[in-house]
Structure formats: C-alpha cells, structure tokens
Amino acid sequence: MEQKEIIYLVILLLLLVPSVLILMGKADFLIAGYNTMSDEEKSKVNIKRLRIVVAYTLILSVIILALPVFLGLMNNPMAHILAVILIFLVCGFSIYFANTWATKFPG
Fold first, then answer.
1. 46-77, pLDDT tens digit by residue?
2. What pTM did the predictor assign?
3. d(CA 35, CA 42)
4. Helices (H) and strands (E) in the chain, counts
5. CA angle 52, 94, 80 (to 5 degrees)
6. Could you write out the three-class secondary structure of 14-65?
C-alpha cells in the first residue's frame, strides 16, 4: 500500500470517530444547525433518530470513499467520480430522512 493510500485511510478513520460519538449521543454539538436551534425548535426534532441519520450518513460516506483504496482504483478518475455521485445520493437521502423521519409531527 502506498503512502497516499495510508494517509487517505487514516483520514477516513478520523471521520469514523465523530460518527460513533454521534451515534452514542456524546456529540450532538457536531450536528450542523442543532446547537443553534431554540428550545422550541429542538422540541420538534427526534434527536435519537437524527443521530442515526447523521451517523449513518457519515459511515456510508466513509465506506464509499474507502472503496477505491480497497479495490485498487486510487488512480482511476472514474472511480472517484462514481464515489462523488454516490456521496451526493447518500446526502440527498439523509436530508430527506432528517426532515421527515427525524421530525416529530404534531398530533
């Protein structure tokens, strides 16, 4: 394994740490926008579900970004383009689930 691949994997491992902390409920401050919400707005959010959405988004992103390294495609630009497209899809689904599944609806 080349040095750039090792550095790439170390960075990806560093991204896994916040996802585990968020999933454990120890790092809600890392969830974008949650800290700046008023108490009234926070009461409309199911924080346990939001943690799941955010943590799994990070985990899926790390897996997608690690695939070129493990498949030996680090020098293939198409692999990186495909990874970026998949990341956009994951983020789109995460936005959808954060705004529907992780929200407390009145009634």
1. 999 999 999 999 999 999 989 988 888 888 99
2. 0.87
3. 9
4. 4, 0
5. 115
6. HHHHHHHHHHHCCCHHHCCCCCCCCHHHHCCECHHHHHHHHHHHHHHHHHHH
